[in-house]
Amino acid sequence: MEKDELAGIPKEGFLKVSSPKATSLSGQQKTALIRKGNELFNAGDYEGAKRIFLTTGYTDGIIRMGDHYFKSKEPLEALRMYWMAPAPDKKEMVLENMARVLHKWLKEGKSPAK
Fold it and tell me: Which domains does the chain have, with CATH numbers?
């Protein structure tokens, strides 16, 4: 029974959070990649932009990705981006929203007092 319950969980878990690894890019290479990431983001290629922003450790771009995921109703991915940026205020905002949702679900799940 336990295996069936765990079958739907991704092997990496629900939320994989790690800091971007430092890359050995020159300042010129990093600037060129960030510009390309911004172009991709503006063109709607969010996954391409995210790869570049994470590779370069471009905090503003990672935060913009978090904002995109939050607006797209993908709070776990938004939280991941905010955590990696780091953007503590935005991270706290997502966590507070998640807590409110959980509170509401728990409240609705209670049977009325008799």
Answer: 24-109 (1.25.40.10)
pTM for this entry: 0.72
* pLDDT, tens digit, 9 for 90 and up, residues 19-75: 556 568 788 999 999 999 999 999 999 999 999 999 999 999 999 999 999 999 999
Instruction: List the end-to-end C-alpha distance of the chain, in Å, as a whole number.
Output: 34
Angle between helices 59-71 and 46-56 (to 10 degrees): 150
**How far from the centroid of its chain's Cα atoms is residue 97's Cα?**
14
What gap in Å lies between CA 100 and CA 96, rounded to an integer?
6
